[in-house]
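ENTRY TYPE: paired fold submission
RECORD: A
CONTENT: sequence, then structure tokens
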Amino acid sequence: MKITKQYIGLMLLMLLMVSIPAYSASEANFVKLYKTYTLNADGSSEERVYKELKIFTHAAMNGKYGESFIVYNPEYQELKINDSYTVQKNGNIVRTPENAFVEVLPSVAANAPAYNHLKEMVVVHTGLELGATIVLDYSIISKGGRTGELDIFSPVKELSPISDFTFTVNVPESKTLHYELLNSNVRPSVKVKNGVKTVTYKMKNVEACPYQYPCTSLPLVQQVASGMMPVVVANTYKNFDAALSVLESQMKVGDKKVIDNKIAEFKEEVGDDKQNLRDAIGKFMSYLYSKKGFVKVSLKESGYRIRPASEVLRSMYGTRAELANLDVALQKAAGIDAEIKICSVKLEDANYGGLAGIVGVLADSELTPMKVALINEPYCNFAEYINTTNIKGEQCTLNGTKSSLSSVVSINYLRNLEFTTENSKEIPGGYTVMTLPGQMAASLYYNYSANTTMQENILLPYKYNIDDETKLKLPEGKVWMKKSDVSVSNKIGEVSFKYVEEDGVIKVTRKLAINEQLITVSDYKLFYSLMSEWKDVNNHTIVVR
């Protein structure tokens, strides 16, 4: 029997095998990383980046760092490569040839003609070898007239450690400058010379990001709110209201006839009832919010520009902000009270935020159907960790599903199953094995619990409750191989598996409750113990003979 159990366990492990990220030695090291932002008196600005990156592995050389990518908007920006070369291990210098600077369309702008003017410079680093050092120095020069202000939200940590990090901001002395370094005790030096105020942050031996958040959530919010990512925030707006006025001035309907004609189409389909109209608008916008119409160009990449709602409707695509503006325009045209909501990373003083810290521009109304609510749900789930305002900068909350508003996602399953050749497997000894469905309901959390220890706090996408009751009919002539109940409970939550046979039916009750969203380093092992028990395929497996 012992051998049979081992065989079953090995077989099931192979069936459910997943790749687990692990810590490893650094693949590269930023010897120097200097970022300098300068605002000129005429409103023009320059972003200058200088880096010296030493390569340690073939993976870094051939993949992660073999190329550098620089996105810019030629409508108001100019890219200048100040210097680019590689210092080989023996000291030989290999300058980057002209044909190694390749300009392409950013992938985020694909299938979006309105943003086909965006450019991405791909710098292909040449002369690479283990021990070589990449040196790249470039500037993005922005003309005045777009916003006329400096607006920075710059995460510090990279995927590799940084030996020497310097961040500098230069603005005219007459300009008001708000600046803050999140998640760090490093204090800046502040100097004024020749009418220019200079704020400088210096750091030594900055550790690499210990992990990356999945893109299925809001990684920037999670990085900052968990305390893992230091971020330099700086802007010259008078206050957050003034920054938002740049967006508000562009939240336009455009050609009203185009919007009204669309509403007329909806009314022909569903009548004049507001909730029915809201559902029709929601169904239409859900299509656009999906990959079909969603353009992943960020606010910054667009130059903080938003096309009118009618233009977005004609083109059937838009950025997140443009789709939200169209959503609100359609609702208002249907007589529904709707408005734009802004979600941004929390600062020490929310009044001094800029546009660069915005993580979401959303449409919101009281008559919100489920599909549309789910689009805003990630922002609702992080309500405690983000700053939410209307377009005027006034504090507010998001409407949404009950689960999203409480940052708890609850799932309940009731199943009745029978053994079949599709859902079970015969193994030597007359045994039949079935792995119950439902284990992958918590798969999103597998990435968060892949290692036995964690160096930094983790912010989960939401608190999570799974209640699963499965009734499995025992095949005629078969006997259930009984197994012991499992129960683990701690301050983070609980996990349990209960097995009972009644009248030829095996009832399996599974529960997973993660009651904390922020998992600290000291509590990570508790979280890991819960997830390890849930991920154990044997707990989800029934064997009969």
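RECORD: B
CONTENT: sequence, then structure tokens
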Amino acid sequence: MICYRLFLNPFRNWANSAVLQYGMFLKKGLNVSVYKYTVVIPQREDAIEQGTVVAFSETEAKRKLRQFELVNPKLKEIRGISGLIKRFTADIK
């Protein structure tokens, strides 16, 4: 029993940490949403800008757009295969 604790316990800790790191990758990597945004530019009210933004939530997407001085956006979440493809070709990541 002592031999088991000395030699297999570090492996068990390594395996647990690998599983936890994989879970963190899933949380950060695959649970990202893609949003299509439409914004009326404040300086020119007749100009409309459209594009896609990758974010964890709708509030983070609005925060990312605010950094580019795009205020009051209309957001729509893109799902499915088109969302997966647009994740790689998004305008704002």
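NOTES ON RECORD B: The mean pLDDT is 77. The first strand starts at residue 33 and ends at 40.
STATUS: closed
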